[in-house]
Amino acid sequence: MSARSLKRLAKSAAFYLLVAAIVVFSIFPFYYAILTSLKTGTDLFRVDYLPRSFSLANYAGVLTSGTFVRNILNSVLVSFAVVAISLTLAVTAAYALSRVSFRGRGLLLMTILAVSMFPQIAVLAGLFEMIRAMGLYNTLFALIFAYMIFTLPFTVWVLTTFMRDLPVEIEEAAIVDGASPFTIVTRVFLPLMWPALVTTGLLAFIAAWNEFLFALTFVANNETRTVPVAIALLSGASEQEIPWGTIMAASVIVTVPLIVLVLIFQRKIVAGLTAGGVKG
To answer: Whole domain around residue 17: which residue ranges?
Structure first.
């Protein structure tokens, strides 16, 4: 075997070893959470990397006691509402920012991007006063309203960039045929924007599903809380009695829907992240 072949083989081996290390580093925490969720009793404190016991008691316990199922439904409702509102507003805003010429368009786009740069803690106090003044405290509407702060700027920015790359000839042909701006957006642009819509919608869903700080601050009722807060509040009478098995089971239940969504829409996600538009 020549020196060039050996060098190429060494590079390939190093690349695949690096990929394997990244995959193991990313998947191992979830794998260990699954192992822990299947343990009960003293097995919880035994370090095992292969399953030695199999029990669904933790899953049955977390689903049948307390308000965890209600918390899951709350998270589903809030996340889907945030995605629907964000995409609806972002599509119309993206059309105006990418296709309509008006003074201050660039400044407005940069302002939208700058809003997403503020950390949540920086706007927490002011947002709390707004929500309390509007009478939304301790309701799911408070979470939907709060989550729009960090999902809407992102979706507007991404969809504006995507729509800006769409061929102008398509829009001109629709205008010649007498199509209104609403028809152009809904009948012409939306079918071409599915990869971007799926990508931004899924990322907005994940952000709303996993959000903790606003959910902890703006909701104080167990029946209204979302799953991240519900999992954080699972605890025993003391540090030694923390139900690690129940916590891991709840974490697995919450994580599986996200994995399923990513697997279902993985092709659209890749297309939305790599294509960037339809070239004319």
So the answer is: 3-45
